[in-house]
Amino acid sequence: MTALKLIARNHLAAFGGIVLLLVVAMALLVPFLPIADPDLTDPANRLKRPFTDGAVLGTDHLGRDLLARLLWGTQLSLVVGAAAAVIAAVIGSAIGIVAGYFGGRTDSLIMRGIDMLMAFPYILLALAIVAVLGPGLINALYAVAVVNIPFFARNIRGVTVALAHREFVDAARLSGMNDRQIIVSEILPNVMPVIVIAMSTTVGWMILETAGLSFLGLGSQPPQADLGSMLGEGRKLLITAPHASIVPGVMIFVIVMSVNLLGDGIRDALDPRLRSGALSRPAAATRVDRTNNPPETRKVDALLKVEDLHTEFRLGSRTYRAVGGVDFEVRAGECLGIVGESGSGKSVTALSLLGLVASPPGVVTGGAVRVDGTDTLSMNGEALRRLRGGRVAYVFQDPLATLHPLYRVGDQMVEAIRCHRSMSKQAAWDHAVALLEQVRIPNAAFRAKAYPHELSGGMRQRVGIALALVNDPALVILDEPTTALDVTVQAQVLALLSDLRRERNLAMVFITHDFGVVSQLCDRVAVMYAGRIVETGPTDDVLKTPSHPYTKRLIACVLELGGGRRVLSAIPGLPPPVDDLPAGCAFAPRCDKANDQCRRGDIVLGGNGMRAVRCLQPEGLPI
Ligand SMILES: Nc1ncnc2c1ncn2[C@@H]1O[C@H](COP(=O)(O)OP(=O)(O)OP(=O)(O)O)[C@@H](O)[C@H]1O
């Protein structure tokens, strides 16, 4: 259903689909239409122009009605082209799956045979096949199918090779399935979309090839007509009776064009990455579409002040409200922890600060983000570019994904330095090495020449931190920088961040789902749930006397070493889907204290300046 909707939304594909549907309907209805016999010759009325004496499209050189021949010829061409596509797809895909799945010698043997077939120009190969089998439409169909088998075999083999070594195939084998069962139940469903895509984009091509063989007199034989043979007959009269070749020529064009437009639409609709927008090129900054004016500019003494930030993702008719009105501020040298379960909106909040949420589908719909008093959401691209990696830098969770795999880490740091200040390459390199030393990378001058894959996970994250520091930022936003590391390395990285913060008076926004990490590093903490802050305050206070039931539950999930026997409690239920948030408190469905009032209206973040909580029944907080 979604695929059909996506095709309908693609105007060109929808146009192609409608045209093709009309042509196919016409071809199917042709036996019931009141038209002349397509093979009835009438030499007295030969080569009549269109729209004369009841012959809508005129007559050919034997006086046969061109409309009747066109409709029957279209039917024949469509059937032959589609049949050739199905035969080529079935045989080619089977060959590709067998070669890709079994690999080794089977693969080499099959693929070398396919290579030999591909070594011949396809039309010559088709001609040779028809020459051996003899002229005729069925033989032309076989020839076209055979020359297209290698195309399917190669494509499907490539996809199968990648699938054959995946964990789910190993798991199927270990569960006792034999090769045939694995191919049918594990491989085939995964290659099916590729087969459909390949078919939809090649069927037009096969209709053309069959028409080409008929045009040369090797396909349909008189008196039977397909579009190619009609074109071949008309060609001889191109000057005296151009309509005889224009009529089948236009029909071939219409069919092939509509098949190709629809095929492209099907390809796009079946590709899950295109469907989710993952392949669309995001804009350089998140789209800002504020329904209200940004909050008034007042004198701001915080380095970063976020006010009523709203960010959402618009996918088709659905709107995912990832960040639904977030306020916080960070002063110079201060570290704010943002904590919450997966999906609570921490990363989207962090990325929204400097317009890094991908648009489409992300849109900032409200609020303001002031860095040194200037709203980043109103900045132009160049101002944002100067800020990113300059005064404000980011460290992400997976340095293997953020570092470029083909450049040495030192070169990547040099590039980051020279993007922001004019410095000679050598001076920038020396600065990079000094920073690598500062983040305690042993033998930094040597490591600067390493590629990311040559470093351990902990070392790569240190490079990520050094990369963030190259331009002496005032604020670093760290999005789960230690989650991918083991606990010992995590402790080292946290100690390093703590030292760097002291030495450089760095402000930090530290995003994590781990209260243990927050307690080591952060002065203040903000707890997020379903895109909003539900509690905030000094870290020690929040940890000792959590007020919001959610904070309490989150803290109870943290293991305490030497804490004696304690039952670790998980939070029952799941966070609400952000495209369908409940009214009132979003945590109410999982909260054992929730009453009817909690499920109504908007609950504000109330407090006494330092501590604030978004709850109607907060605990232990003098409000
Ligand atoms: N491209 C997107 N399209 C639709 N929804 C999205 C997209 N990116 C994020 N979201 C939604 O936004 C919400 C917040 O996501 P976010 O990544 O900020 O969570 P998080 O708290 O950082 O989680 P994690 O700790 O797993 O990174 C989630 O519900 C997520 O499903």
From TrEMBL:
Residues 304-555 form the ABC transporter domain. It holds the Pfam family BPD_transp_1. One of its GO terms (biological process) is transmembrane transport. The keyword rRNA-binding does not apply. Keywords: ATP-binding, Cell membrane, Membrane, Nucleotide-binding, Transmembrane, Transmembrane helix, Transport. Gene3D superfamilies: MetI-like, P-loop containing nucleotide triphosphate hydrolases. It comes from the Bacteria. It is a peripheral membrane protein; Multi-pass membrane protein. The keyword Membrane applies. PROSITE patterns: ABC_TM1, ABC_TRANSPORTER_1, ABC_TRANSPORTER_2. Coiled coil: none annotated. GO terms for molecular function: ATP binding; ATP hydrolysis activity. The chain crosses the membrane at residues 12-33, 76-102, 122-145, 194-216, 237-263. It is found in: Cell inner membrane; Cell membrane. Residues 74-263 form the ABC transmembrane type-1 domain. GO terms for cellular component: plasma membrane. PANTHER family: DIPEPTIDE TRANSPORT ATP-BINDING PROTEIN DPPD (PTHR43297:SF2), OLIGOPEPTIDE TRANSPORT ATP-BINDING PROTEIN APPD (PTHR43297). This is Dipeptide/oligopeptide/nickel ABC transporter permease/ATP-binding protein. It comes from Pelagibius litoralis. The lineage of its organism: Bacteria, Pseudomonadati, Pseudomonadota, Alphaproteobacteria, Rhodospirillales.
